[in-house]
Design brief:
mainly alpha; 3 helices; elongated
Length: 82
């Protein structure tokens, strides 16, 4: 979860710092892809562990994945207010 928030800050701040549009796009896309991969892996792991114990997965299992959605909202806000 902490790694996803750090990656979110990097993804949202780096395009504002870098001047080139291609470099800014890569500095945004790579951390967002990592956020999605880490969040999906955490959610899948929590689901598998819950199924192993015959329990429903807790809603907190999807919090790392929700950081991706926060990144999308943050991106829209940066674009709108820039």
């Amino acid at each position: 979860m902490v790694a996803n928030f750090v990656l979110l800050v990097v993804a949202l701040a780096s395009p504002l710092i870098v001047d080139g549009s291609e470099a800014a796009a890569m500095l945004f896309a790579l951390p967002m892809a990592l956020i999605l991969a880490i969040g999906a892996a955490a959610a899948i792991r929590a689901y598998i562990l819950a199924r192993r114990e015959s329990l429903p997965p807790r809603w907190t299992a999807f919090l790392p994945l929700s950081v991706f959605l926060l990144g999308i909202v943050g991106t829209l806000l940066v674009i709108y207010f820039k």
